[in-house]
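Quick one: co-fold with manganese (II) ion.
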Amino acid sequence: MSLQLLKRFQKISATKKDGITRLGLTEWEDKAHAAAASVFSRHRRVKHVRDQAGNSFLINGDGKGPYLVMGSHLDTIPNGGWLDGALGVAGAIAAMQRVLRIDRDARIAVAIWADEEGYRFGNGLWGSRAFAGEVRDDELLRLRDSEGTSLADLLAERGLQKKPRRSRETGELEAKFVYKPPLEIAVYAEAHIEQGSRLIRAGKRVGLVTHVSGIRRWRVESVGETNHAGTTPMRERRDALVPIAGMVGRLPQLVRGVENGVITCGVIGAEPGVANVIPDRAWAIIEHRAPTERDQDEIARRLKELVATTGPRAPGVGLDLTSISAVRPTPMSEEVTARLEEVCRKLNVESMRMESMAAHDAMAVARVAPAGLFFIPSLKGVSHRPDEDSRKEDIKLAGEILFNWALAELERVP
Ligand code: GLV
Ligand code: MN
Ligand code: MN
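Sure, here it is.
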């Protein structure tokens, strides 16, 4: 594993302090993709291919037929850590370099998935879902950032997709997502930091992921009426934030009794956002995760009920719940997991099987190819914050496992 490359990625950030800000579908993500591709700039056989979703592929050879692919993402959340995503990309590149020294014709590629975090539009796994054929046309106009820009507008601005057009018949804006995968994946593996503390507590160096929890995200929005915060009597107010804030306080109850169910409101906002003005518009983004679709359905049912019963308690305020995105719980390939396990055994490294409550691009890839995912321990068990870290020897181990897995797997890929 090239620590040097990881350090290079670390320097590519829109902010100089407090971690790394390299948001998806921005010039900062582009710069990181270019830095990754530059590793092979003197390698005549490896081409950098960018697709219509903004993903990058570093492909050895002609790109025809099924390929062994390793990868992850290079975008971060605002003020994120240096290893979330970058570890898997740097590890994949280092492994591919070593494989090519042994077999220069190997049908091997690195995938760098765009906008895994989904920060701007609230939808995760953007690039890998596009590759897996899971992006629906309606996502492009339905999803808007805090400024009201749609995903369709952004993709057009970045030259990835055509601009949305107005339909002659209905007058409505229309956007169609056009995507052709640039290569076929025969088998896929991704290395990632654990982002939790189970490995450290169990004293193991590698976690082999058998299953990843699903994620559903919702936007709840309320509309009331703005007025003076001093002169408007309490009984005459239509304060849009009150029902939203009340709901958020009750969210933890919605996952009671659901094994490994979690629910979070990480975004809340109110307008006009002035201390002495009653808000007339408020919103929150809520996400919930659970290992089974049945449990996700149950949490969603409870959430809808909470919204339905909170509305009438806020007279004159309309409350609306809309779905932003849904990623189904995903089992990882048993075959790939067993082969990663075998690699750990050969390297004399203690591993354990585990579930992941964090989402990863490997989930989307698993819909179209056998895919494996493994973790190395996160120091202090923390992630999505600037002090996220792992031990150097574990970072190196991630690359070592990918390299050994790729060598073994290439014997099987036709
Ligand atoms: C990915 O970072 C996630 O939200 O699980
Ligand atoms: Mn992340
Ligand atoms: Mn990640």
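If it helps, Residues 117, 124, 358-359 surround glyoxylic acid (ligand 1) (CB under 6 Å).
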